[in-house]
Give the backbone structure.
Amino acid sequence: MIRWLSGACLFLSLLLPGVASAGQDLERIRSKQYLSCGVAIAVPGFGMIGPDGIWRGFDVDFCRAMATALFGDPTKVRFVPLLNDERWPALLSQQIDVLLRQTSFSVGRDTALGLRLVIPNYHDGHTFLLPAGAGTDLPALAGRRICLALGSSNVAITQELLQAAGISFHEVMVRRLADMATALNNGQCDAAGYEGAAVAVLRSMLERPEAFAIMPGRYSKEPAGPVIRAGDEELFDLIRWVVMALIEAEELGITAENVEVMRRTSASPAVRRLLGREGEAGKELRVSPLWAYTTIRLLGNWQEIFARNLGEGSPLQLERGINRLWRDGGLLLAWPVR
């Protein structure tokens, strides 16, 4: 039996050469003392270098949160801007450790590429940008030249959706969101299809944003979140629990401003476990007992990260929508730290 199991494991390892051994990627990250994150190229609100040379954005902050949980320091990060078709090769070749580029989850991406989709940290859906006053539903897209991002799932979503509705259109493929904005500005496209948040960002990038409107409907489910190479369950667990800790912090009313006081004074077992006063979550994740406390103190909870990058504290002013907490009718729910 032992010989049979050994042979089976060897056979599987030969079949999956790009898959990490348990703990291998996490140990490599610890050894080099920084976390390398793949992010989008110059997408305001999600990932962009400011005039001061500092990366900012929703995806950027989640990368910093993971580095903080691992090293206690949000500066131990490297950001690698990637196009859609560069994502998977960058992960599989170890150019990056984690992909944080608003990558939507699907069965094919989770099972056929040698990757693992960890947990959604943002929920969205496909929609369209079209000229203001042109209409609010799919027939308004008939005959239009629709900009789509090469290598994204939005291409197939648009094709399936409009073909099923019997609506003819013309595809115009571009590689970056900035290219899409250019194509809309110069009249190469007169509509665009992408996830709702990306469409809002795209509209903000246009020379005359008031000339375009976002279609109110959402025509697909697009949960998005961090992606890693398959095989390293320890790294998978750590990243998943960082995301859930930031959601649970919001549920418990823990913020960057009050986390120190709550750690010292709260009698709530849930708060005390999350902030390292009780339990062994840190030990089980192989990080400091203060992993969640430090992350929340330096980055804030999920709502704070959203607000400053995408919501009321940002130029985009996006509403949370389905990204509200579960108790408020949204989809954000964290497993308890216990």
